[in-house]
Fold this protein.
Amino acid sequence: MTFIQKLSAAWAANDSMLCVGLDPDIGRFPPHLKDKPDAIFAFCKAIVDATADTACAVKPQIAYFAALRAEDQLEALCDYIRAAYPALPIVLDAKRGDIGATAEQYAREAFERYKADAVTLSPYMGFDSVAPYLEWKDRGAVILCRTSNAGGSDLQFLDVNGTPLYQHVARLVADKWNTNGQCALVVGATFPNELAQVRAIVGDMPLLVPGIGAQGGDIDATVAAGRIAGGRGLMISSSRAILYAQSAPGDGGDFAAAPRRIALQTRDEINAAASR
């Protein structure tokens, strides 16, 4: 099964366009986890167990693991997800962007070491920096287009023959790079007008949409701008708002209860917006 097929199945099976981001920050962990040698794995495993049935994908951010020399815990987490939730796509958020033999090694890291279903990539070194990932025809290449951060405008609105650069990237990926039908694009929820422009360019291509939750993106505007005719087409990512949701008195000390509650609420808000 390809990444796109797996994603489509997850949209339907879990009735969800929510992508749960895994950005583990030990400073925000429950006290009983902080001194555990496998604290990152234990925290993320609990979040995945609590939210897997609410999501169309999970998105571990590799920097949060690598900075603490915890790549082995990321490997263990990916192994666990594949074993416990084999239908749930894993999108490795790495934003890699290098050329030739180096890109080949990064592709092996994502698809052999972590066995991710897809990886996020930067397009700004051109096609030869993306091509090695496309050799893995069953995996996804999720390419930065119009990112959710304000500084993205420094480059993404540069004029390319009368077209903003982010639109040029969208058209390049849709028309020339997506020969195996395995590409997706990253477009931020913080820019719904640009999201609509990208959707008009790329048709039904999946879009990974960060920026709701802690970054303040509007769910209704995001869904209206980015959904496809069948009502899906999006992986709407929320990380910190879910991971570090405040526990309630009835949670009984289960730190993952609040993340589950917020994930369900977010999924339902997305579905409500899609039904309007």
